[in-house]
Write a structure and sequence with these properties.
The protein is of the alpha+beta class. The chain has 23 helices and 38 strands. It is 37% helix and 17% strand.
Length: 891
């Protein structure tokens, strides 16, 4: 083996390091050389030399073989170590796999145990294992009297391995359902959430309904208890739909169940409808009462909305009479107090007078009334809750999700099966009794007992008795057995001597009638089942009236009922906005809104954002702050800074992303005026120009088409504008508290056409004070001048509001409605094109179209004249320093 490995290794050596010579190959070479040489002496000498060399090579080969054997030994040792490492790794992998398998097995067993034996109820009897064991123990010790709950818990512990606390809690819950356990003592209060008294102080027993519908050991399947010492029922033969009567809640591994309780009478009537193949509908019914909306119940696979029953006791007090099913008085009062702390509702005091019935009294403060408070309680507190239904049960040892109809149909089928089995058992008992009575009559009436007087052995007695009865086999319904003969032989002499044949015949006739009735019931099991259900309804139905009222009520829209008492202040100096902001002007009124409103922020460069009502937020230099309304139409006048061209635009903010900035006007433009009323008409007073036939442009905003948010407006004029006069204020498009209104109450009373008032309240930039305004008297058709708010412009710079006269430059200005103009509507695509498109499709007057080529130069001269205050007819105008970002707060 070593030499073989050595050969392989030497073959791999480089040629310049030499190779081992094989001895056999050397001998062959020597023989060939001898044959070739003819001289024997020379051959001898050569042979000696070659033999010496052969000896030397053999020694070298021996050393090499020894070295190779050592290397092979080392390699074998390394291979052995590798094998040991591999075996150790395999052992580790096997150990890891074993741990994983153990964990997986244990987890599955634990999860299955929790699901099947603890948390999820069985669909057939509607009980969890602990509830089933409690009822079975009560059945075993039932004698009609009350039993101490502590003793019942102790008996149940023989079947339930989880201690007395879990058993006591389950018994209390089951007793408070009022269907199967009659209670005596303090079992707590489901209305207030109070717990039960100690188990040694309270007593319980089965109700008559439980005795009648839950137990029948003849048709009950039993299995060993957890310790193997006792037998417990696998499930009870429940003849009512207990799962839907009791309801259930449970959380298991990876799943949960929430089943609402239903009304006893309605369930049984629905079972009759199933048997009669009629449609039916079932809705939950809770012990707490309340009001319920089942429009989304979806046969137990949806949700319901529950409301407390609230009554108004006058205008200043409300009383809660019934609770939503998932609430207690303590939790409901906590939710009301929480809403009051958050300023959602206003209350003066709250008192709980609940005893047997709910009575939570809420007193209201000044200026708060019962009707609006009831709506707020439904909107902001747990007086209205939404609860989802998940009907998951154990069916055939597997957790499944079902609907109410499926569960009730299965319960009805199980009821038919139970009744059929009971009838079959009853029929068998009747058959046995008829056979027994018939044999006894034959045995006594025909004196067969006389034939056994001389029999000396039991075998002869049995044989003689059987022979005596065989003659009457035709009177019997089945064959005679040894057990029958033994019963006959056990009849005492007293009974034989006092046997009444006529009475026995009457009993046999009655038995035959009962047997016929049983056969008829088996043949018509559906009719028999319906009759059984009706007997239960007549006997127990009056004890369980419906307590929860079903109504379809719309959810309360919190936006509609929200109190408009949130005050938003604007700090124009530091650029903050919010409810926790101190206004820069003490006299400035805050913006009053609700917590659900949205605010529109608009800068004079056209940047627009919509935000929620903040507590305190930096908004930067912002000109307008308004309440958002998707139906609000905004009318603006804006101008191009470089060219001085004026545009008009009407738009709405219908859709938006909260906090995202949108551009309302093109770049390098400024918004000069904004109006929120509809029907506004203004007049743009132009700088005097003797070469122009008109001195103003009338703008009726409603005649301009509505543009999209980012579209360009319609061109009005390229001449410098000295003032903007409001001719007609229009009507508010939004509620009065949201619309900007700079006019006085006296001016409002005069009418729209007589007293035009600006829609935007302007504030001088950086100072927080109102911009100075000047008024000028104007004679219009011989009437007294009326005040008009306007904004004067000098060379494209902001100017103070000033009244303007219809006479400018000593010339009579044309009437507002006589100003010639042409309006056209452009689509949004054309709105993004150049100024040439604006001139073609925008608003232009005939004077502009007929102007000479020097109108642009004249406009520049007019601007310079306005800047110097030397233009003719403009001496009364006041100059203002232009501010790029004036601040406005419009409410």
């Amino acid at each position: 083996m070593a030499s073989g490995k050595g050969k392989k290794k030497n073959k791999g050596l480089p040629a310049d390091e030499g190779q081992e010579l094989n001895a056999d190959a050397f001998d062959d070479e020597l023989a060939a050389a001898s044959a070739a040489d003819g001289d024997g002496d020379a051959d001898a000498d050569d042979s000696d030399e070659r033999r010496d060399e052969k000896t030397r090579l053999d020694a070298d080969n021996a050393d090499a073989g020894h070295d190779l054997d050592a290397e092979d030994a080392d390699a074998g040792h390394e291979d052995a170590e590798d094998d040991d490492d591999g075996a150790a790794g395999a052992d580790d992998d096997e150990e890891d796999d074993g741990i994983r398998a153990l964990l997986a097995t244990n987890f599955i067993e634990y999860a299955s145990y929790v699901v099947k034996d603890r948390a999820i109820p069985d669909v057939d009897d509607g009980l969890k294992p602990v509830q089933r064991r409690i009822l079975y123990c009560l059945h075993r010790i039932d004698d009609g009297r009350y039993h101490e709950v502590a003793g019942v818990i102790g008996d149940t512990m023989h079947y339930h391995p989880h201690g007395d606390q879990s058993i006591g809690a389950a018994l209390t819950v089951l007793a408070n359902k009022e269907y199967f356990i009659d209670r005596q003592g303090n079992f707590g209060n489901i209305l207030t959430g109070d717990g039960a008294a100690a188990a040694r102080y309270i007593e319980c027993r089965l109700t008559p309904l439980a005795r009648e519908v839950l137990f029948n050991e003849d048709i009950t399947e039993f299995s060993e208890s957890y310790d193997g010492r006792s037998l417990e029922p696998v499930r009870l033969p429940c003849k009512v739909p207990a799962l839907l009567m009791l309801g259930s809640d449970g959380i298991a591994v990876g799943m949960m169940t929430r089943i609402f309780p239903h009304n006893f009478r309605e369930l049984l009537e629905a079972q009759i409808a199933i048997l009669e193949d009629r449609p039916f509908q079932l809705y939950p019914d809770f012990q707490q009462g309340g009001i319920m909306d089942v429009s989304e119940y979806a046969d137990g696979a949806g949700r319901i909305r529950l409301r407390a029953r609230i009554e108004a006791d006058g205008d200043k007090k409300v009383i809660i009479r019934e609770l939503p099913a998932t609430m207690t008085t303590e939790s409901l009062i906590a939710s009301i107090e929480r809403a009051a702390r958050n300023n959602r509702i206003k209350i003066a005091a709250i008192n709980d007078y609940t005893a047997k019935e709910v009575a939570i009294e809420i007193s209201l403060p000044r200026n708060v009334y019962a009707e609006e408070t009831i709506r707020e309680l439904y909107a902001y507190t747990d007086c209205e809750v939404t609860v989802n239904s998940t009907l998951r049960v154990i069916r055939e040892q597997v957790p499944v999700e079902m609907t109410v109809s499926e569960v009730l149909r299965r319960n009805t089928e199980m009821l038919q099966g139970f009744l059929r089995r009971e009838l079959e058992i009853e029929r068998q008992k009747q058959e046995d009794l008829f056979h027994e009575k018939t044999l006894a009559q034959i045995f006594i009436e025909n004196r067969i007992y006389k034939r056994i007087e001389k029999c000396e052995t039991l075998e002869l007695v049995m044989k003689e008795t059987r022979a005596g009865l065989e003659r009457f086999r035709h009177l019997l319904r089945r064959d005679i057995t040894d057990a029958d003969i033994e019963k006959l032989l056990q009849i005492p002499i007293r009974r034989i001597s006092m046997f009444d044949i006529r009475k026995n015949e009457q009993e046999l006739a009655s038995l035959l009638q009962d047997m016929a009735a049983t056969e008829a019931n088996l043949a018509q099991i559906v009719t028999y089942t319906i009759a059984y259900i009706r007997r239960l309804l007549d006997k127990y139905g009056a004890q369980f009236p419906r307590r929860t009222v079903i109504e379809n009520f719309a959810p309360v829209d919190v936006r509609k009922i929200a109190r408009r008492d949130v005050k938003v202040y604007h700090d124009r100096l530091n650029h903050f906005l919010g409810t926790n902001v101190k206004g820069s002007n003490k006299d400035a009124a805050p913006l009053v809104c609700t917590e659900f409103d949205r605010l529109v922020l608009l800068r004079n460069d056209g940047a627009c954002r919509v935000i929620s009502v903040p507590e305190k937020e930096y908004i930067g230099p912002t000109k307008y702050v308004m309440l958002w309304d998707k139906d609000q139409i905004y009318s603006i006048l804006y101008r191009d800074r470089q060219e001085g061209t004026w545009f008009v635009k009407r738009f709405a903010v219908e859709q938006f992303t909260l906090g995202r900035e949108y551009q309302i006007v093109p770049p390098n433009c400024l918004i000069e005026n904004l109006y929120t009323n509809s029907g506004v008409v203004v007049s743009l007073e132009l700088a005097p120009n003797n070469r122009r036939s008109y001195h103003s442009v009338t703008v009726d905003f409603d005649t301009y088409a509505l543009r999209s948010r980012g579209a360009r407006g319609f061109k009005l004029t390229q001449y410098p504008v000295t003032a903007v006069n409001v001719i007609k204020r229009g009507s508010a498009a939004m509620p009065q508290e949201n619309a900007a209104d700079a006019g006085t109450d006296e001016e409002k009373a005069r009418g729209e056409d007589e007293t035009p008032v600006a829609d935007v309240a302007a504030t001088q930039s950086g100072s927080g004070k109102d911009a100075p305004a000047s008024e000028s008297a104007a004679k219009q058709s011989g009437k007294e001048p009326s005040p008009v708010e306007s904004t004067a412009k000098q060379g494209g710079k902001d100017a103070p509001s000033a009244g303007s006269s219809t006479k400018q430059g000593g010339k009579e200005a044309p009437p507002a409605d006589a100003a010639p103009k042409t309006k056209a509507t452009r689509d949004d695509g054309d709105a993004q094109r150049g100024e040439s498109g604006d001139n073609q499709a925008g608003t232009a007057d005939e004077g502009e179209q007929a102007g000479d080529a020097g109108s642009a130069e004249q406009a520049k001269l007019d601007v310079e004249a306005i800047k110097k205050g030397a233009a003719k007819g403009m001496s009364r105008l006041r100059k203002l320093i232009d501010e790029d970002t004036p601040f406005f707060l419009e409410d």
